[in-house]
What does this fold into?
Amino acid sequence: MKFQKIHNKGQARIFRNQYLEMLTKTHPLVIWGMYLPVILFLLYYSFVKHHFTISYIALVFTGGLFSWTLFEYLMHRFAFHYVAHSPGAQRIVYILHANHHEYPRDRERLFMPPAPSFIFACVVLVLQYLLLGNHVFMFFPGFLLGYLLYGTMHYAIHAWNPPFKWMKPLWRNHHLHHYKEQEKGFGVSTTLWDRVFGTMFDLKKEKEDKEKVNDLMFK
It folds into this structure.
């Protein structure tokens, strides 16, 4: 998945039909509005219906949040950057992620749109329920919050400079993923798994290209 040029204006056209095209876009607050009530309800349900203690709920919830970071890394590395050969597979990869690399300033496609997002969330919930049983009502909210934080962090990286100095490596790792090498820097909400699996950029050796970074930032 390589592009000769980053497009600094406009956005990718996914569907010819204007109504389907509208469904490919969303605002972060829409997704937060969808899932924050779900997170709160499931945690409440775990406490009231299944009588789990608050400390145990917090523990399993944190486990779900942490598990998202690994899921995020694996999806970004092996699904979003899958080297597709058939036209159909290439189109799927483009819809899922490649359009973001071509149009990194498109702020309407950083979160999965509501309809496919809801379907995917339901599938994940069912699979996790089969593995975890009633514990899923504590684990899935953490996993879901991880997704919301990931999308928000991704938005922030393209919108602003890092608010704290310790966050700069995360910002630079993602910027380099865009304009330097797409086979590194897969973590967005954390660099942990890039460090574990050896796909972290050596930030001491990489010089920051301010012009190319500017091409990635929202205007």
In short: The chain has a mean pLDDT of 93.
